């Protein structure tokens, strides 16, 4: 009897073990099969795979050297791409511009301009991210120049064509902008745009400008940069970078093959600049009166500051002060900042003589250069 009763007990234990293993596997996706060469297949959403290529913990991520295609034959990014800070995968059915490069760690990056700016976004290969050039981020200047201040308020500052105005003036950082313009006799209005920046810090002068062009060629580089009068040459390739031998913390990086760059002085500022024309469509919509004599190439800009003092002034600079009070009529569709004469630089693009200037040339004790060091 003891022998017979022992047999069912062992059978019961085995059944319990089988049931437990089955229950433990329930709810888990089966592992993805592997190819004959022991590489993982393209991601299968129904199997819990991550379409972005990172895997979900159950399946190994794709190998860096393998570029799997989607069903439509288009390549899949190996790293997550972003647009305006949000995840955004390229959609080849859209006309939005697509960028492809190898990011800093050598993996493939495929990013696309978001719908907000389908053709005119800037691109960072390092972060696999696209950003609309003229979104109202603090520190943005675009078009017939509208600025978004440090307080987040967007406003116009028209200035005057063929003149220079101080945008930022701090203890040891001064940024002037050169304005170009076009007069449309049909509506008797003169429109202005920023064509160049003159950036003075310590004992150095940095020029960033857009070359004039009668006809716009998007494959030609229209950006011109000099440091202390010497040309700064950056390879025409996305992510190409130049680093100053005199100031190792000063760099210029391409954010597109041509016409878009980012200038940075570590710990002090970074400025993204894109050379863009006035198109026939722009001219028609805004009544700019563009003629075939000049495509009115100008700069769309994005400023970031890391060490401004609370003494800063200028068209844009004053909006970063803690005690800044906005006196514009913010109830209008687009507030206008007046007072152009007090921002006028009478001595040229690198002059620091505007009425609100706070700049003091102090090479040895430069706060900006100390921040960058």
From TrEMBL:
UniProt entry keywords in alphabetical sequence: Signal
One of the Pfam families matching this protein, by short name: Root_cap
Record region (Disordered): 28-75
Annotated signal peptide: 1-27
InterPro entries: Root_cap
Protein's UniProt keywords contain Signal: yes
Domain of life: Eukaryota
Name this protein carries in UniProt: Uncharacterized protein
Organism listed in the record: Lolium multiflorum
């Amino acid at each position: 009897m003891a022998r017979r009763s022992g047999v069912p007990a062992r059978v019961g234990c085995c059944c319990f073990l089988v049931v437990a293993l089955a229950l433990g596997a329930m709810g888990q996706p089966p592992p993805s099969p592997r190819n004959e060469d022991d590489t993982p297949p393209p991601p299968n959403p129904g199997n819990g795979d991550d379409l972005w290529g990172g895997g979900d913990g159950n399946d190994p991520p794709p190998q860096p050297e393998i570029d799997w295609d989607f069903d439509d034959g288009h390549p899949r990014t190996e790293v997550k791409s972003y647009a305006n800070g949000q995840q955004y995968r390229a959609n080849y059915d859209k006309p939005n511009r697509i960028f492809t490069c190898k990011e800093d760690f050598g993996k493939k990056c495929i990013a696309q301009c978001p719908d907000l700016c389908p053709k005119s976004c800037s691109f960072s290969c390092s972060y696999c991210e696209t950003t609309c050039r003229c979104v109202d981020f603090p520190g943005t200047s675009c078009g017939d120049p509208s600025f978004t201040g440090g307080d987040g308020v967007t406003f116009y500052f028209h200035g005057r064509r063929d003149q220079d105005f101080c945008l930022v003036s701090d203890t040891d950082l001064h940024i002037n902008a050169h304005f170009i313009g076009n007069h449309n006799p049909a509506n008797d209005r003169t429109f202005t745009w920023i064509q160049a920046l003159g950036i003075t810090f310590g004992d150095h002068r940095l020029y960033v400008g857009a070359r004039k062009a009668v006809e716009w060629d998007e494959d030609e580089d229209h950006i011109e940069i000099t440091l202390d009068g010497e040309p700064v040459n950056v390879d025409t390739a996305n992510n190409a970078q130049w680093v100053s031998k005199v100031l190792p913390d000063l760099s210029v990086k391409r954010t597109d093959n041509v016409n878009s760059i980012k200038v940075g002085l570590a710990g002090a500022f970074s400025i993204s600049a894109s050379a863009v024309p006035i198109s026939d469509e722009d001219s028609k919509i805004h009544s700019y009166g563009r003629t075939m004599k000049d495509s009115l190439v100008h700069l769309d800009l994005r400023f970031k500051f890391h060490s401004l003092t609370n003494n800063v002034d200028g068209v844009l600079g004053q909006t970063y002060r803690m005690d800044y009070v906005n006196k514009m009529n913010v109830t209008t569709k687009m507030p206008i900042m007046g007072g152009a004469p007090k921002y006028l630089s009478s001595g040229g693009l690198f002059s620091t003589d505007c009425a609100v200037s706070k700049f003091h040339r102090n090479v040895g004790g430069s706060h900006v250069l100390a921040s960058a060091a």
